[in-house]
């Protein structure tokens, strides 16, 4: 449009180089960069706090949110990086860096269009997901995206577009078997650790089940946390492939293989917002299953007042969406609605849940029968879906494999293949909580129970958590044990106890 | 529900005290706290990065987002605070602090309900606005709130509820006059500095106009920035009251009087998201006018392809909403749709816009006539609304007050009352950009022009910005000056020049 009327020579102020400093600040997952306010680059580039900047190290770069530092605890020629930024960029202390304004995120215009009511098409979904995976979205932009796609604002067609986009942006595993099965639980039920039973049962029957699981995000234990008390779970893809080719199944941590890189980013904002809409959940679950190469998947939806899905109506709507999106993307989905009114098994916490699993596999007296029955139901359905049992015969086949010890031998073999079987740890500090008065146990608040286990240290302290002593419906006498808290330190035990005493409705006991 | 079966004595780990450290990190407005990962409180409380924590100093407290530090540049017994957190909490270096988990924000359930499709009622709006003002919302929660209320998702009834809630949470000024006028421009037009003309014109006619204005947020100059080159603007409420009682009007920075504390918080996320929906905008504007005690307000909506409001249809929808919400809240709103196709006046940047204002007030030859005409139009409407002129006669009255020098004397008096009149600064470095070829100037991109002025240093460097030499429609010869860049440092000038040369469509010149 125009040209400077005179040459620029002499006008360009020399900008001294910046060097990298790792500040070891954990900003959760958002990459943050720190620059002194009196740093020449800050002024010449017009950077301000909250500017989105590109940080270049040779040919590599990341996009980070800037925090301007007015203090002198960082040097004027240093660019500090948060842990997320440091890990994403690589590099070493003191490495020379360049910085620039980040281009505005082009696909945010598609997000704004969605906010203003335009349906999300496949092109928009792909542009958005690509930018999300490339780390171009700030946390507040992610929050806007997630909000715009929550509630009833994403229909089935949009969910299909988003799922396709999330599949397209990641890798996709292929297996030698034509039929690859999987199971997934929509979550929200403490102790519901059926995966560690279903995988060995169906693998023992000859099916291929390359299972990836998550660590806990808001719960006291994820399946990966529980499995980790029995064997290593941080398998990379070649290791995972070796385990599955040898044993038919694995239970690996999904974070290490990153099957849905978009989901890994979205989740960091979804969780703190407490937004868990059907559309985003279906796209997240099915994109991961498709990326894992699954052809048939059984999805367990626990329904209960304090579970994630709270009504039969909500469960049916979710089931319908799972079916429709699965059909569109060529994956066979079978949904089971299960009882979500109380925790499953006795233990809540990584090691305590592993002990429950071992009791069921080893057919111990006193093994939690609810966990066993749920696992048999799910494994039976998987076996039918995987054509190892005729419709209606899956449950019996699953039971025989469990009762014979074949499933227990298979879990041991899988643990060995994943790097060696371990014995789950025991907590050093325990404390029994008892009923204040006699009566019938009529309700358990899953959410507060989960919080109690977390306060005791789970999942960071793998032996921490709690063990339940009374099921729903039990008649209790005053002073009868309700649960035992387990902790690895006295401070954590005290903290959990204080919480338990401040809450009067984790257990509802109706006097007779 | 239960009680510990044994006393807790001896279980509680002693937690050493934390002391305050000001880290001078500008995280923009979100309060952030920094704790070492090996700090005992971190572990005993189960704090993680992104935890929302309460920081207590005696009886005062704030809610902050936690960043966990794995380095040793902060002591293990220190709690670091970002600037926003430091300013909100008060206190001094080394002051003893206590911390706790923040309660989940209760009103976020109302935000989720809105996301899931429930209309925003007055109770929900009040609970939300109260929590927002109390600093309980994290930035991602604010982003979710704003997204949920954007697009066509907030109807007139919800806008009324939100506006009422925003008025209720702040203070409300009262004046001795029954009739208090105001003017507001929806913005998006560089150089549109009519306030500095309208206020002295209508105050000179005897109306009460306690005007508060914002500083630039995304633009090269806000009205407060421009006024600040002429007089102090950071007046507190008693000072503002003294000025208005003496001179009938003022031009103060709204941030210092905080008439809409909710808006001050929301804006920090609205702007970076680029979400500027009618509902939020109307609630923001009218809540501030009502809080300022205004009874009659003229609202200027510039309409143009690169202005904030881009079509007549959009302008009419916005005007309708302003009318309806104004009527519900008992404030008389009069809307003017104006030409938003090009910048107003010659200068863009705080001081350069002030020089334009002075030229108009002093009736200088070469004073920008477009700025003069817009100001007369708006001032005329305000005078009619304020019953100083009959319908149709306002423009003539405004012109006579401007031509007679009465408006110029009134601005000088207002500046003196605000703390003393100043002469706007001149930039040390200038550079002329010229047309590459002959032709007619058929379009100016307001957004890129604003960016160019910002790169030259505006508004932080008050003398920086640019002066336009050719209006839309002008016939240009090759090499004819288009604009002059003004900067306070050679680096900023070079930076703006580099941007200008990289853009080929700030000015569209059609060859004849």
Automatic annotation (TrEMBL), chains A, B:
Top-level EC class as recorded in UniProt: transferase
Highest taxon of the lineage: Bacteria
Keywords for the protein's UniProt record, in alphabetical order: Glycosyltransferase, Transferase
One Gene Ontology term of the molecular function aspect: thymidine phosphorylase activity
Location of the Pyrimidine nucleoside phosphorylase C-terminal domain: 440-507
Catalytic activity of the protein: thymidine + phosphate = 2-deoxy-alpha-D-ribose 1-phosphate + thymine
Pfam families: Glycos_trans_3N, Glycos_transf_3
One GO cellular component, as annotated: cytosol
Keyword Electron transport in annotation: no
InterPro entries for this protein: Glycosyl_Trfase_fam3 (IPR000312), Glycosyl_Trfase_fam3_N_dom (IPR017459), PYNP_C (IPR013102), Pyrmidine_PPase_CS (IPR017872), Thym_Pase_Put (IPR028579), Thymidine/AMP_Pase (IPR013466), Thymidine/pyrmidine_PPase (IPR000053)
Family named by the database record: Belongs to the thymidine/pyrimidine-nucleoside phosphorylase family. Type 2 subfamily.
HAMAP family the UniProt entry points to: Thymid_phosp_2
Protein's name according to its UniProt entry: Putative thymidine phosphorylase
Organism, scientific name: Duganella violaceipulchra
